[in-house]
Amino acid sequence: MIRTRKTEPLTWIVGHAPDRKSVPERFVPATVPGAVQLDMARAEGYPDYNRADNYRRMTWMEDRFFTYRAEFDAPGLGQDRQLWFVSKGIDYRYEIRLNDTLLLAREGMFAPVEIDLTPHLHPRNRLEILLFPVPKRAGMPDDRTQASASVKPAVGYGWDWHPRLVPLGIWDETGLQIRRRSHLREVDVVYTLDDDLSGADLRIESRGAECEECRGVWELFDDRGRCAARAEGAVGQPLAARLENPRLWWTHDHGEPVLYTSRYTLRDAAGCDLECVEERIGFRRIRLVMNEGAWSEPAGFPKTRSAAPAQVELNGRRIFAKGSNWVCPELFPGTVDAARYETLIGIAAETHFNMLRSWGGGIVNKDAFFECCDRRGIMVWQEFPLSCNCYPDDPEYLAVLEREAAAIIRRLRRHPSLAVWCGGNELFNNWSGMTDQSLPLRLLNALCYRLSPEIPFNATSPLNGMAHGHYLFRWQGKDVFRMMNGSRFTAYTEFGIPGISPREVLEGIIPAEELFPPRPGTAWEEHHAFGAWDGDPSTWLGLPTLARYFPPAETLDELIAQSSLLQGEGYKAVFEEARRQKPYCSMALNWCFDEPWPAAANNSLVAYPAVLKPAIAEVRRACRPLCASARFARFDWKEDETFEAEVWILNDVFARTGPFVVTVTLRAGRAEERILRWESPSVEPNRNTAGPTARFRLPAWDTDRFGVELSVEGHPEMNACYTLMYRRSPRKRRCTSMNVTE
Amino acid sequence: MIRTRKTEPLTWIVGHAPDRKSVPERFVPATVPGAVQLDMARAEGYPDYNRADNYRRMTWMEDRFFTYRAEFDAPGLGQDRQLWFVSKGIDYRYEIRLNDTLLLAREGMFAPVEIDLTPHLHPRNRLEILLFPVPKRAGMPDDRTQASASVKPAVGYGWDWHPRLVPLGIWDETGLQIRRRSHLREVDVVYTLDDDLSGADLRIESRGAECEECRGVWELFDDRGRCAARAEGAVGQPLAARLENPRLWWTHDHGEPVLYTSRYTLRDAAGCDLECVEERIGFRRIRLVMNEGAWSEPAGFPKTRSAAPAQVELNGRRIFAKGSNWVCPELFPGTVDAARYETLIGIAAETHFNMLRSWGGGIVNKDAFFECCDRRGIMVWQEFPLSCNCYPDDPEYLAVLEREAAAIIRRLRRHPSLAVWCGGNELFNNWSGMTDQSLPLRLLNALCYRLSPEIPFNATSPLNGMAHGHYLFRWQGKDVFRMMNGSRFTAYTEFGIPGISPREVLEGIIPAEELFPPRPGTAWEEHHAFGAWDGDPSTWLGLPTLARYFPPAETLDELIAQSSLLQGEGYKAVFEEARRQKPYCSMALNWCFDEPWPAAANNSLVAYPAVLKPAIAEVRRACRPLCASARFARFDWKEDETFEAEVWILNDVFARTGPFVVTVTLRAGRAEERILRWESPSVEPNRNTAGPTARFRLPAWDTDRFGVELSVEGHPEMNACYTLMYRRSPRKRRCTSMNVTE
C-alpha cells in the first residue's frame, strides 16, 4: 500500500538495564529497523556472529530490558495537522512513552503501531520504547518450548539449522508522520469474481476519515495505466464498482501475474485532493479442492473421512504446486530489505517454483516479500507464527494471538500471491501436541473466516492425506527413491535432503584449521553439521551415508562433491516422484529453500546469503513444466542386476503436446548403452504420460557410478539425466578386474 | 429455563393456498405445536399415516402456502405492560402479520421469535403466520439434495428409514406473553472450573432489562435447596461469584448428574421482585483429548498428521462413550413432548448408554430433551442440521445458517449434557462432498468458538481416525465379527445391524394379507424392508443374509426370531469389540437408537414408538460397565474346525476389582463342554484385561447353532453368553447323521 504520506525516520539510541525500572547507564547508536543485539554488537565491537560460535556473545541480552530513545523538536502543525508515531513492527513486548507519558503497552511484533502524539507534544520531545526481555514460557527449558505461550517466532529459540538467538527490537519501518486531522486509516478493496471469471464486483471501504463533506474517489488502472473502473461517493460509505473481463493474475508458469492499481483519493468539498492510498490488486480465484481420486478413498467399512483437500485450483485450473519452504533469510528480520527478497524470490522463480510455504516457525514477512511474490507470480502459503509447540488455551495468549493474527490478515489479504492461510507448522503431530480442539487454531480459523473467507485455511501442515519428511537421503535401510516410490500422499509440503554448503560459505564460518576433515566439537557442529536434528549425530553432514556410497573423501572439495551429488539426485528423485503421483498428488515443497545464516550442512537449496548449492540445478530440472523423467527403484545398483528405469513425460502445461521420441542411454565411464527408444503418444494437457520400463542387465563396468540419460528427439530442453551408483559384484571383481583395479 | 412469565396459547386455524398472495378458501382447526400436514389430515379424515403407504396422501402439501390464523382481544395492559408474541420454533420460512401489518419475515425453524405486539394492537386482533412451501434447492431431484441450501433437516426429504414427508408448521411452544416494559431477555451463567475442579468462578450476565434503578440478584441453590453462592448488582452489569467444591455433574454410569439451580431475580428500587429466571446448571469439564496410542501414529516418513481426538474426558476422567444415534422419534417434531423424550432417554440409560449422538439429518431437539439428558446423566453429541449434502458457500445460505446456528448454540450451551458440537453428518465423505474449506463448516466452527468455546467442536463425523459403518451383518464375504476384528479406529460413531420389527409393530403397518412372506412391492417395501439403502435390494430385511445362516422361515415369528438373533449377536459383537479396542478406541455409538415411524426392518434398537427390539437386551449386556466378553473370529463354525474364543474382562469402572474366575462353556443342544477355566488377575481401574484364548475342536453336533457361556464365579451379573452358528461337515453329515436328519 502506497500512501502519499511519508514516514520520517528518527535518530535512535539504545541502552539496556537489568530491570524494568532502571534507566540504562549508557546508550549507543541504534539502527532502525534492526535489532538491539546488532546495535550492541556494533558498539561493543563483537566479531561477525555468522562465524564459528560468535553468536553466543549475544546470549546475555535475552534477559535485559532495552530502551530505545529518540529526541525531536515538535514540528509546526497548525490547526489541521497532527503528528503521528507509526511503526510496522516492534519486537516483542514493549511500552511506548513520550516525555514520560505512557502511550501504549503491548505484546506482539506484528500489529502495527499508530499513535497520535499531538496532544502530548512539547517543544522538545523524548520518545522512548521500553522493550521487555525475550518472552519465555515459565518452567520450560532453553529451547523452542519457551516460545509456546507467545506470538514470537519459535525459530529464534534454536532449531536444527538456526542458532539460539532471539531477536529483539524495532524490525520494520518506523518513524513520524504528519497527517491531516481528517485522514484515511484504511482502504479495503474486496472483489467477487463471477463464477465464470468474466467479471468482478468490487466493494471499496474506507475507514478513518472523519470528514463529512469529503468524498472518496476510487479508480482502478490496468497494467498499461488505463482506467478500468471508477466509483465515487461520500467518505465512509462503501463504494461499489464492476470490472468486466479482468485480466487474471496467474503464477508465472501458467500465465502472467497481472496487477492492477487501485487508487482511493480523499477529496474535500472544494474538490481538492487531500490524500490518496494506492495498492496493487490482482484478480484471481484460489481454492483448495479435492485431489483427483481422493474422494474414492477410503474404501470399505468401517469408513473414516476422505483426505483434506490439497489441490490448488487457480482461476479454475488445477495446478501442481512446486516450490519450497521459505525461512527468514536473516537471523535478524530487521535487516531484511526488498532487494534481499527480490534476489531470493527471483531464484525461486528461475527454479520453476510457483509456491513458497512461509513456514510458521519464522516471522511473517514484510510487505516487500508479498509485493515481490505478487509481481513474480509466486503463490504464498502463509502460516501464522505457531510451530512445533503446544500453544495453550489460555485467555492471555489467545488475546495476543487474536490481535496479532488480525493485523497479519488485514495486512496480507490484499495480495494476490496469498494462496493459503495455515495455522502453523506440524501442530497435529506428537512433538507439538495440539489437536482440532485447540483454541488457538479455532481462533485462527474464525479470524480468517471473518476477515479473509475467500482464501483457503488449513489448521496446520500436514493435514490428513498430506505429509512431511523424510529429511535424509537414507533412513532405516531405505533410500529416498524407495521411500518416495512407496508413498502415496496428496501433498508433500516438506521433504529434505541435506547437502553441504559451498566452499566459499564454509570458509566464511569455519576456521581454516578446522575445515578438513569435519569433526564434531568444531565450528562444523555449531553450524549444524553434527547432531543437529532429532538426536541423530550424523545430521546434517551425513558422513555415514556418504561412507555408504563413496570412498572416504580426501579433500574438502571431494566431500563437497559427494554431498552435493546426493542432495541433487535425492531432491530430483522426490520432486519427480511427487509429480509422477499427480493428479492424486498436487504439491511438492521441499524443506527448505534458503537459510538465515550460513549452515555447514542443511536441507536448504540456497546457502546464506544467496549462494546456490549445486542441488538447485537438479531441482530446476525436476520442476520444468514439461520434461522427461525416469523412476528408479533405488540409488545404488550392482553388476548383473537387471536395472530398470520407468520412463515418463511429466507435463504441467495446459496444452496438448508431442508426440515425442525418447531414448534412454546409460553411460559408465566410456561405455555407452542405448537401452530404450520410446515413441510416446501425444501428451494431454496437464497430464503426465507413463511410458515403458527399460530393462538392462548391468555388465562389468570399471566405475562407481553411471549416468542415465533421457533424450527427447528435437527437444533437448526436455532431456533428463541422473547419476546412480554402481558396484562390481565381489566375486567378479576378483576374477575379471584384478589387473585393472587391484 | 423457567421464567415466572407464562406463555398463553392461542387458538389457531390453518388453511392453504396455491400462491403467496391468495387467501386460503377454507380454514380448519390447528393444533399448536404440531404440523400443518397433521391438521389437514385430521380435517380431511386421512387414515393413519404410519400404516402402509398412507403418508403419500400428504405429499401435495409440500408446495402449498399455508396460513395460520389466530384471533384475540387486546388485554388490558396499562402503562407498564407489553404484549409479546413468542415462539420457540416455526418451520420453515414464514411471515408474521398482525392486523395485516408485516412484523417479521424470516427463514429458519430454530431461531426463536419474540415480537412486541403492543404498538400494533387493536381491540380485536388477527395474527397470521404465512408459511412458504417446503424449501427445495433449485434443480435438484426429489431427494435429500433438495435440502442442501437451507437449514431444514434433510431427513424429511426421504431417507432409508424415513418416508418422504417434510414437516411444516409451528413445531414448538408458541403464544402470547404479557411482560413488564422492563423485562429480562436473557440471563447467561458462564463458569470456569479451576484446573483441579475444586472451585468455579461464575459470571452472570443479564440482558434486556432497561431499568436503571433495578438490581439483579443471583442465587445458586444446590440439589438440596441450600444457597451455595450469591451475587447482586446493578442490572446489566455482569455479576461475579465463586463456588467452592462444586459437586460435579457426571454421567449416570460414573457418578451422579448433579444439578444446581441458578435463579436470577430482577428487583426494583423498592426491593420488590419483578421477575425471575431459573435454570438448572451442572458443573463439569468436558474435553476431547487424544486417544491413547494415537500420538504414536503415524510411524515412518513421509508422515501425515495424527488422528483427531475422540476420547471424552469428563472432569479429568477418560471415559468410554457408549451409546447410540438419536433421531427424532416422530415424523412431525411438533408432536414430540417431554414424556416421549423421558421414555426413550430412560431406555437409553437402562441400556448403559452414556452418550447420544443427535444426528445432523434431523432436528435439534426441544428443550425437554436436554433437560432430561441433564437429569439422567447422558452426554449429547449435538450436530447442526447438515447431513449428506454439499451445503454451499453462498452468502444467502450462510446468513440463514449463522442466525439459526447462533440461536441453537445460545439455547443449548447452558446444558451440562451438551458434550460435543458437530457440524453435521458425514460431510467429508464423497456422498456429501464438503471439505475442510467449506464455508458453512468454517462458520459453525467460528460461531461455536465465539459462543461456546468450552465445548469441543468437530467439523463432522467421522473425522480422521473415527469411522462410520458398516450397516449390515455381512458385507463382501465378511461378517461383522471379521469386519470389526480387523478394524482399528478411535471412535465408532455409527455402525448398524438391521433387525426386523416386533410383530405388534408389523401388524400395525402392514395389511394382514401382506404380512407373510414379506415381498417387495408391498407395505414391507414402503417401510424399508426392501431396497431401502444404497441400491441394495436386501436392505433392511436382509433375506439373503438370513438365508445364508438359517433354513427358510416358515412363519413370521420364525423370521422375526432369525432376524432378531443376527441383530442382537451382531450388535453385541460390535459394541464388545469396540470396547476391547479401548483405550485406542473410546467411543461406540450404534446407528440408530429409535425411529420416527414404524419401520418393518431397520438398524434401530427401539421400534416406533418405543417398542424394544430383542437386540437391545444384547446391547445392554455388551455395555455393562464390568463384564466378561469373548472375541470370535466369525459367526459361523463347522464341525472339525478348531473353535477359538479370546476371553476378556471389560471394565469401564474407575476402581480396581477382581480377581475373577471365568469359565467358558459351549452348549449345543444337550451337549455341554467346558473348554476353559481362567483365573484372572485383578482388574485395573478403567482397563480391560485380556485373558487366554480357549480352543476346542468342534465335534459332530446335531444342531445348527451353539451357545458360548462365560461364567464369572460369584458374579453372575458379569456373565456373558453368545449364540453362534454351526454346521456339520458335508462328508461327515452323510456318514454319521443320515439316520437322524436325512
Automatic annotation (TrEMBL), chains A, B:
List residues of the Glycoside hydrolase family 2 immunoglobulin-like beta-sandwich domain.
183-284
Q: What InterPro entries would the database entry show?
A: Beta-gal/glucu_dom_sf, Beta-mannosidase-like_N2, Beta-mannosidase_GH2, Galactose-bd-like_sf, GH, Ig-like_fold, Ig-like_GH2
Which EC numbers does the record give? 3.2.1.25
Q: Which GO terms describe its biological process?
A: carbohydrate metabolic process; glycoprotein catabolic process
Q: Which reaction does it catalyse?
A: Hydrolysis of terminal, non-reducing beta-D-mannose residues in beta-D-mannosides
According to its UniProt record, this protein's enzyme class is hydrolase
Question: Beta-mannosidase-like galactose-binding domain: which residues?
Answer: 26-171
Asked if the record carries the keyword Membrane, the reply is no
Write down what this protein is called.
Answer: beta-mannosidase
This protein's species is Alistipes dispar
